[in-house]
Design goal:
The chain has about 130 residues and is an alpha+beta fold. Helices cover about 20% and strands about 35% of the residues. It is globular. This is DUF2917 domain-containing protein.
């Protein structure tokens, strides 16, 4: 693959990503959000470090750090504070979309999805935790 083909490929990918509502977060920057409704954070490119608080009810079981790779999704509860940062020196492209109420209410908690051998891994999203 030549250099011009590589640039054309990445330019096309970036244009396609922008067409589908993908946002970009540059290295050294962070995004802080607290959704009013359940939301899905889907990573399109790069790696994300997401820090979640205890949620609107302060249970603490939903809090912690989560590392996501391209193609992975993390469900964020309504009222739960999340801080998203790119890992390393790569940009992060992500999509943050509202989730249907029935999907959000039945989603398996991220720490259970990340457990090895969990049957819910194939059903729910594939977040990885630290």
């Amino acid at each position: 693959m030549t250099t011009s083909q590589i640039f054309k490929f990445f330019s096309t990918a970036a244009t396609a990503a922008a067409a589908y509502g993908v946002s970009t977060l540059l290295p050294g920057k962070a995004l802080s959000l607290t959704p009013r409704a359940p939301m899905a954070l889907r990573i399109a490119e790069g790696q994300a470090w997401v820090t979640l608080d205890a949620g609107p009810y302060g249970t603490g079981t939903e809090a912690g750090d989560v590392f996501l790779h391209a193609g992975q999704t993390l469900w964020v509860a309504a009222g739960q504070h999340a801080v998203v940062e790119p890992v390393g020196q790569q940009r992060l492209q992500y999509r943050f979309t509202r989730t249907p109420v029935d999907v959000a209410s039945t989603a398996t908690p991220w720490w259970r999805r990340a457990a090895f051998g969990s049957p819910s891994v194939a059903v729910a999203s594939d977040a990885c935790c630290a």
